[in-house]
Design brief:
The protein is α+β, with helices and mostly antiparallel strands and 280 residues long. Among the domains are: 89-172, no CATH class; 176-274, DD-peptidase/beta-lactamase superfamily (Beta-lactamase), CATH 3.40.710.10. It has eight helices and nine strands. The strands form four sheets. It has a three-stranded antiparallel beta sheet with strand order 7-8-9, sandwiched between helices. It has a two-stranded parallel ribbon with strand order 1-4. A two-stranded antiparallel sheet has the order 2-3. It is globular.
């Protein structure tokens, strides 16, 4: 990639990346030297063959050769040759939230089922585990009979929450701003509050909010975006010293244009909102 002068700006757009080919990415633009070293997690264009290609590349890098093929199937029940332990949960959640790692988020979601004793872990079991957790802490009603796990159809929660695969890459997942705010309030009173808040990107400092145009260091917010969707949720420390829960979700064909409005929402909270008048 050729380097160019000037501010970093929208470095991903400037790269003019093409990820459609399974054999590798192609770049047609330039990279600003002012950006320094950055990472860009992307989804592989051919996930069905990813494991085979990854194993082949790693084996070749070690100087080996493979003459067979990779087969997809359940893991053997024999004792494994070696085990690798994951990082502590606080570190895993930090990586997920700081950089919006959807693959890690989905794996952590499935671990909920494994923790409850379901083997192999399934999305359905993970949804049930998450639903029970939410019912205990927020009081969500039971799902109506004959409905999909996690849908809460036939109740008020049906319009409040639906969990699909546990990551941000789903058109079926939904949550209301009110329910998300309630969850953030509940987390604030929990023993794990410091770890969770520290895992959220700090506006103007790091993660996905490194280049946010808001007062640096005073807002811990998780970003979310899909086509036609933009969102922010987390905690904001106002200039008066009060901490606020903030949730903003935009669902519209032009949601991408709402980023300045969400930034303005954060700034509004930073300056402290005036006392609201009584009434509806």
């Amino acid at each position: 990639m050729p380097l160019q002068k000037g501010p970093c700006g929208d470095w991903r757009r400037n790269l003019q990346a093409d990820f459609s080919a399974a054999e590798g990415a192609r770049f047609g633009g330039a990279y600003a030297a002012a950006c320094g070293e950055l990472s860009w997690p992307v989804a592989d264009p051919d996930p069905a063959s990813y494991n085979a290609r990854l194993l082949l590349q790693m084996w070749q890098d070690l100087g080996g050769r493979l003459g067979g093929r990779v087969r997809t199937g359940p893991a053997p029940t024999t004792v494994p040759s070696f085990e690798m332990r994951s990082a502590p949960l606080s570190e895993v959640v930090r990586d997920i939230n700081k950089f919006s790692n959807n693959v890690m988020a989905q794996q952590l979601f499935l671990t909920l089922a494994l923790h409850d004793g379901t083997m192999p872990a399934t999305p359905e079991a993970a949804r049930l585990s998450l639903r029970r957790w939410l019912e205990q802490r927020i009081g969500l009603p039971e799902a109506a009979s004959g409905t999909e796990p996690g849908s809460w159809a036939g109740t008020d929660a049906a319009e409040s929450l639906a969990i699909d695969n546990g990551s941000g890459l789903s058109r079926q997942t939904r949550v209301t701003a009110a329910l998300l705010a309630r969850l953030l309030q509940q987390v604030w009173d929990s023993p794990t509050m410091p770890e969770l808040m520290a895992s959220l990107p700090i506006a103007g400092i790091d993660g996905t909010l490194r280049r946010a145009r808001v007062s640096g260091g005073r807002a811990h917010l998780k970003t979310g975006s899909l086509r036609d969707v933009q969102g922010l949720a987390g905690y904001v420390l106002s200039h008066s010293g009060r901490r606020y829960v903030l949730v903003g979700i935009v669902q519209h064909p032009r949601a991408g244009a709402a980023r300045p409005a969400l930034d303005a929402l954060v700034q509004w909270v930073l300056r402290d909102t005036p006392q609201r008048a009584s009434g509806p």
